[in-house]
Amino acid sequence: MTRIGIILGSTRPGRNGEQVARWVYEHASQRTDATFEIIDLLDYPLPHFDEPISPLMGQYKNDHTKAWAAKIASYDGFVMVTPEYNHSTSGVLKNAIDYLFAEWNNKAFGVVSYGGVGGARAAEHLRLIGGELKLADVRTNVALSMFTDFVDFTKLNASDYQVATLTTMLDEIVAWSGALAHLRQAS
């Protein structure tokens, strides 16, 4: 069965990302074509990148890196839930991504972003980063506006349109994860 990790890309106190990740999980877990799990970066407290050798080599020294690598390696694809901070993704998500290389390769991912303009710029940055890591980004992006998809900027109230967009994105991630399986097996 295809395994998809929903990466919660914010660790900020009072983060909106937790309810967004749970919303994604609630909808995704109704599917029968894949299994889904939330990966909360709070559970993987990675310091600023501290490996002495490039992740390209896969020679991890630190136990926190080894645990993170094992977690990411166990999935076939990802949904990255990201806020938009200063026209980009969160530092904690970028740091977690930078720790690894091969564990990301030949897997599909999609983005659920949120912010003043739906987190669109954060999603675009993640697409650029993903390309370098041999992650295949799907076309559909769920972009939740703090003005229209949240009540008082704090309580998620996603529209039916956003639910339909999420379904399309999950369809794409599951299909692409399956299509890339032969590349993951070859490596």
Automatic annotation (TrEMBL):
SUPFAM superfamilies: Flavoproteins (SSF52218). GO terms for molecular function: FMN binding; oxidoreductase activity. Transmembrane segments: none annotated. InterPro entries: Flavoprotein-like_sf, FMN_Rdtase-like_dom, NAD(P)H-dep_reductase. It holds the Pfam family FMN_red. Residues 2-148 form the NADPH-dependent FMN reductase-like domain. GO terms for cellular component: cytosol. This is NADPH-dependent FMN reductase. The lineage of its organism: Bacteria, Bacillati, Actinomycetota, Actinomycetes, Streptosporangiales.
